[in-house]
């Protein structure tokens, strides 16, 4: 049995798992799991992941692993996507933890509300937009200093953060205000072979 990845193609968290597996040449079966129709809430899915969330990786031996950044870290173990230097590795993890706490909850939520719930940007909670803009400004500051988030080559930090940054405009964020971020998105997309 191959690695199975349960994911919804509208989700940046799911796509980052797909992109990592593709970049590393890891064979897998993608199982499209629609969150909008509650496919993650079925008893069969909940038996695999009681949290009822995608992405979910189920390894050939049957062990499940949830949470996008945990999955990509496991998949990339020993690869060039994880720095060999201990401090650089810790900086990569710092960005990945920050992504889930200070970026994704604002950028991804605004995108979901606008794109999938049909809300006008003007109706979104102002704090959501402020925090999202703060996250993009934080990325801009870093990317004015370095080619990628941790030095001069792609790491999992870039994979994790590009997932929702590249589609931030769908949530009402103007990426042209962040030229270093825009250029970085292009570099990461090129390296991962995505568009």
From TrEMBL:
Residues 85-195 form the GST C-terminal domain. Residues 1-83 form the GST N-terminal domain. InterPro entries: Glutathione-S-Trfase_C-like, Glutathione-S-Trfase_C_sf, Glutathione_S-Trfase, Glutathione_S-Trfase_N, GST_C, Thioredoxin-like_sf. Coiled coil: none annotated. It comes from the Bacteria. Pfam families: GST_C, GST_N_2. This is Glutathione S-transferase family protein.
């Amino acid at each position: 049995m191959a690695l199975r990845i349960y994911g919804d193609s509208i989700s940046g968290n799911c796509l980052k798992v797909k992109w990592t597996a593709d970049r590393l040449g890891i064979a897998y079966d993608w199982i499209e799991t629609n969150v909008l129709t509650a496919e993650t809430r079925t008893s069969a899915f909940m038996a695999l992941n009681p949290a009822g969330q995608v992405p979910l990786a189920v390894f050939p031996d049957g062990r499940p692993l949830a949470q996008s950044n945990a999955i990509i870290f496991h998949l990339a173990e020993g690869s060039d996507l994880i720095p060999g230097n201990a401090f650089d590795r810790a900086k990569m993890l710092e960005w990945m933890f920050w992504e889930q706490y200070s970026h994704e909850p604002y950028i991804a939520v605004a995108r979901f509300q606008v794109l999938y719930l049909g809300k006008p940007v003007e109706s979104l909670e102002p704090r959501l937009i402020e925090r999202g803009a703060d996250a993009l400004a934080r990325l801009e500051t870093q990317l004015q200093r370095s080619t990628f988030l941790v030095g001069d080559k792609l790491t999992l930090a870039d994979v994790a953060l590009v997932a929702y940054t590249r589609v931030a405009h769908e949530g009402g964020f103007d990426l042209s205000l962040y030229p270093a971020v825009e250029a970085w998105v292009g570099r990461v997309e090129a390296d991962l072979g995505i568009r």
